[in-house]
Amino acid sequence: MQCREHCAACCWVPHIQQPYYGMPNGKAAGERCLHLMDDDRCALFGDPRRPKWCNDFKPEPEFCGSNKDEAMQILTWLNEVSDPKKV
Known about the structure:
This protein is an all-alpha fold and about 90 residues long. Helices cover about 30% and strands about 0% of the residues. It has one domain (about 10-80). The longest helix is centred in the last third of the chain and has 14 residues, at about 70-80. It is globular, with a radius of gyration of 12 Å. It starts with 8 loop residues before the first helix and ends in a 6-residue tail after the last helix.
């Protein structure tokens, strides 16, 4: 599966605990990544400063659903059930 144009659910929904370039405290769940450009593309794509989580994430129907709304719902649910504070 290819990334869906103008989706960027993976740039909004997940929390990233590790600090990374421009975000020294990581990224909270639901927080827009600082590097998400106005066209919903990553300014760090292909850059070694891009977080490992982002490099490792591969779009799959199980995570991304069939549209942006489904992707937001699925990733929100996955983020909540994997929150170490709630497990």
